[in-house]
Design goal:
The chain is built from six helices and nine strands. It is α+β, with helices and mostly antiparallel strands and 264 residues long. Helix 1 crosses helix 6. The longest helix has 28 residues. The two termini are 26 Å apart.
Amino acid sequence: MSPYTPLTLFLSLSGCTEPELAPPVMDETTRLLWTQWDDEDTMEGLIADLYDLTDDVDTELDWEERSYIVTAFDRASIEDLVEHDRDPTETFGIGLVYHSPWTPVDHMDIIAIEDRTVLESSSPNLYERTFVEGDPECMLDGGCSQMRTHNYIRRENFFYGQMTYATDKSFRWITTPSGEQAIVARAFQIDRSEELDNKIHLLQSYALDVWLPDEGGSRRYHMNWQQTEMPGGLEDSEIAGVLGGGIQDLMESQDAWLEDQTAD
């Protein structure tokens, strides 16, 4: 997720419009994009569906008006990926649609960064990405269609306090109906966050990132499911504000980074 300042958090939680429950087809398509990762034919069909489902989304609207609350997938979908025994149906999930002026290939420059502290102000001291299988250069020159990364992250911000955890995140190309290539990524947290001076514990999290070629840039769809634990708990509307606002901030900061690189 992206950095949260006290102001961003306040604005996220005090927004007038709450995200809506995803329509049934959008809900199912989102979950299947995560669970059917290894089935290329199915993934191609789902990407075609995602284009259709997001065609009418006005990306100029506030993020709350182009976001969806999505139900989680079941335990069977993660049994071969994680060692913990947590049930992903206990997570809360929200995703949003966003338009970036940068193409999926352009965004590979961001994906390739190993010391990710330069991108994330909420992780100023530790955010390391290791390429376990494949790498962006291999993806770009056609030598491989997938790559897998391991990420070790320490969040340090107003909302979380200090929290360290690890995720695996995989990326792959999927052919779109136009014959262009979209990037699809899925991530999962290895285990609960480590004990530091946490205000909140991240028990489990899962993410879906999609970069669809669109109008010379990318139509992005980012989905995040989390189960958290904190004194007093959080209402779903509060979690939606934190996650949704954070996703929007992340999209904007990545576009700004690419713009800065071009200006240099």
